[in-house]
Amino acid sequence: MATTDQPNLPVRATGEEEGDARMSFFEHLVELRKRLVYSLLGIAAGMAVGISVSLKVFDYVARPMLKVLRDAHLEDKLIYTSPTGVVNLWITLGLYLGVVIASPWVLYQVWQFIAPGLYRHERRGVVTFVLSSVFLFLAGISFGYFIMLPYILKFLIGFQGPFKPLISINEYFDLILVVLMGLGVIFELPILIFFLALFGIVTPRFLWKNFRYAMLIIAIVAAIVTPTPDATTMLVFMAPMIVLYFIGIGVSYLVVRKKRERAAAEGAR
What we know:
Number of strands: 2
Number of helices: 10
Strand content: under 5%
Structural class: mainly alpha
Strand order of the largest sheet: 1-2
Shape: flat
Largest sheet: 2 strands, parallel
Radius of gyration: 23 Å
């Protein structure tokens, strides 16, 4: 029998297994609005906390830049070029911190919205979904902070030439926002593949056969996110993305295998 790239997906069960999965379009809209409201309330609470600690957090965020300046025998000071520079930084950093703080709650709301379309046993994975998503996001930020930032900043300061760098706190924050948040989102790739496999959009075979196209997309994303023009930095960006892609293939294999085992069990009844 000929094989295809798509798994034999089980037909949704009815009754107890399906639970409350049958919802009208209007009910979906009502549920979406509720989850959006809950998410925004959580983000607002997170922002209140983030703003209260943002300046202390920036002291920690500024350390890679200050270290690079000291290593280059330059004055380890950051400046601001407008009267509202510090205030803007305080509020903006607080808002982003609020999103990070509220991310577990927001992810829980995302899961609650999509849960009616899943089997009952699949819905029990909410804790795993939230914890793995937060872990991967924080892992991406950590990779950017401890590995990428020092390398990028050293590369950029090395091009000072006859000029003396005066680093603006706002422009520095814009740079680290692209690097840290960008990597945090990129590290969510296995979660994205998990959902694509869960709903039968991709399979391990499909991901493996189209690896060359995935490499092209990864290279384009790395070129966009990388704030420096050198190829080495771009390759450092690409390396974890390639590893995450292969992790995603493994995740999709587990999902498809579970689906097939479930379908075989249903067929044997």
